[in-house]
User: What shape does this take?
Amino acid sequence: MQVTYPVIVLAILFSGIASGFITFRMSGMRLAPHFGALILAIIVTFAGIVTGSIWVVYAAAALQLIAAITAFTQTWATLKYNFQTAPAYAPHLALMAMVPVLAIASVL
Amino acid sequence: MKTVKALGIKAPNSSILAENIIKNGAKGGLILILSPGSEEGLEQVAKKYGFTFEVEKGINEAIENFEGFSGDQTKDLIVVVKMTKSQVEELDVTGETCPGPIILVGDKLDCMTTGDRIKVKSKSSEAVEDIAISIPEMSGKVVEKGTDDDKSYIVVEKIQTPTSPTAAVNRDKVLVVQSNGIGNAERAYATFIFSKAALSMGKKVTVFFLMDGVSIAKKGNAATVKHPSFDRLDKVMAEAIAAGAKVYVCELSAEFRGIKQGDLVEGTSLAGAATYITLLSDPTYAVVNF
Assistant: This one.
């Protein structure tokens, strides 16, 4: 198993922690489900790289997809109605938008 | 138009009589047949109810057919007072988006002279309410409100521009302007927590949602905002409204986001730029921005 894609995803997820923390403080507990999924994805992605197990990598990819989806579902109302404050969410959402592509690439 | 023969009645009783007749259904106008001298003071009554005032001495067509007229009165013993509804110009602002209606009304008022009246109507009751709130700031006063078919209307009378108040004003009202919406939980909470604090201090509170702020008033949105230390935002907002906070939502910002009156939570209503400017211009308001 090659580890390039899981490592890139791991780096993006770590970056997501930084941008997400700022977002989290702005939006309140609404983003809690997303951050739960994000932290789990980091742990399982790291485990996949260390163990090299394809099943762990599959589990990590699934969690990465969930983390990306919840980032958008939990901020949907803000994105739809807040034109002035939504840009503050952009860095985190941009990072999360990269995750699904790399998640699929890591299991192919 | 009602015709009433009241010979022998003296002023000011004639004014009291006229006022009672108008109040009891002579909204379209009134013809009074009086003895000379009794017309004194009736001009003020006519002005009060927006009627034109006309006095004629002697018998004319208006009373010849009146059944109470006996014909034995001589020409110089009769005074005919006509109080007819003045022709009020109408201004329909239906379809105009904020701040169009208030600009149209403002332009119209500028061209009017003191005492002139104009009927402003629109299918949007919010637009009419917005104008009604702002009229005192525009040298006008609302003399009548109502609905015609499916349109709301107000009748506005041009008044003399009031001189600027020089006396100290009591700032006993708070205007909380919220322009960040659900995208910034802290500012959203602060809006209602400060409002509740002001209300508990006996202040009158008005909240104005502007730009992103309107997202809070959209049904279901406030329920998505929660901080561990506070109740959910929709509950805090409902408490502030129940405690007496008046909440306006900027019509323009709502339009930008596709939000209609029906999408708003209970206790909030759309208001135009005129309402916002009127509130800001009121020296009795202290303004807080979130």
Notes: The interface with chain A takes residues 179-186, 211-212, 214-215, 218, 220-221, 224-228, 256-257, 259 of chain B (CB under 8 Å). Residues 4 and 42 of chain B are 14 Å apart (CA to CA). The radius of gyration of chain B is 26 Å. The first helix of chain B runs from residue 13 to 23.
